[in-house]
Design goal:
The chain has two domains: 61-89 and 159-273, Ribosomal protein L4/L1 (Ribosomal Protein L4, Chain: A); 104-154, no CATH class. By secondary structure, the chain is of the alpha/beta class. The protein is built from nine helices and six strands.
């Protein structure tokens, strides 16, 4: 006859096994090991960082020069503008739109209504053995019109405001990563002399095209830079992605850098409200 085992006996066996395992574990841990475990737990608790600790984002730095070309030190650039992640796809899309808008379509071919002649029918409809012809302006004839020819047109592509702002940030970030951004002090107070800007570029060893960014329109700065080759001038409000990428060197004045950060902060606040 098979022997039936009750549930009570099973539970008692399991509890006995568990008690025996617990006794073995307590025997294995010696008092010395227990003190070591307590010390390890204490060190772990003290090494934990506070939860409410805030991380400050530090942006890239740029060299600062005075108008005579002497280095005055470094300055940290705003991280929200110059320290963001570069979006290469958006940057390529923005540059493509700038290239398309710059290209002009001036080609023009005459249609049947614009070609001279063709008033009379060349020959009668039937009886000559020739193909039917109604006008000398036909595209099949020599000297006739052009079928589906080009016409002057204007193509304008646009980017949304947020995408345009982000593409400009990506362009500025690429310049900051390549150390192609410099800061100049007291640049907007110079007299209208080209020699001052030329000496500054020579002493700072700026090779290639250079873009000066100022805070607002300044007639003295315009007169001092307009006769120099590969030197452009723009304000912080009119800065765009194409100009930043096109020029090799980007030189900000301190006032322009401050105006650019204020401008971006206002745009972010405006978008947050909407």
């Amino acid at each position: 006859m098979p022997i039936k085992v009750s549930k009570v006996t099973k539970v008692s066996k399991i509890t006995k096994v568990r008690k025996s395992k617990g006794q073995a574990l307590t025997r294995a841990i010696t008092p010395a090991k227990r003190s070591g475990l307590k010390r390890a737990s204490a060190t772990k608790s003290t090494s934990k960082k506070p939860v409410n600790a805030t991380k400050r984002s530090i942006g890239p730095s740029a060299e600062v020069f005075n108008i005579s070309g002497k280095r005055e030190g470094n300055i940290s650039l705003p991280s929200e503008i110059f320290g963001a992640k570069v979006n290469k796809k958006l940057l390529a899309q923005a540059l493509h739109i700038y290239f398309v808008n710059r290209s002009a379509h001036h080609g023009s071919a005459k249609t049947r209504s614009e070609v001279r002649g063709g008033g009379a029918k060349p020959w009668r409809q039937k009886g000559t053995g020739r193909a039917r012809a109604g006008s000398r302006r036909s595209p099949l004839w020599v000297g006739g019109a052009k079928a589906l020819g080009p016409k002057p047109r204007k193509t304008v592509l646009t980017l949304p405001k947020k995408m345009k702002r982000q593409s400009l940030i990506s362009a500025l970030c690429t310049k900051a990563q390549n150390n192609e951004i410099k800061i100049v002090s007291n640049f907007e107070k110079i007299p209208p002399k080209t020699k001052i800007v030329a000496n500054f570029l020579q002493k700072t060893q700026q090779k290639g095209s250079t873009l000066f960014v100022i805070s607002a329109k300044n007639n003295n700065v315009i007169l001092a830079t307009r006769n120099l080759q590969k030197v452009l001038l723009n304000t912080a409000d009119g800065l765009n992605t194409f100009e930043v990428i096109k020029n090799q060197n980007l030189i900000f004045t301190k006032e322009a850098l401050q105006a650019l950060s204020v401008q971006f902060a206002k745009k972010v606040e405006r978008e947050a409200k909407t």
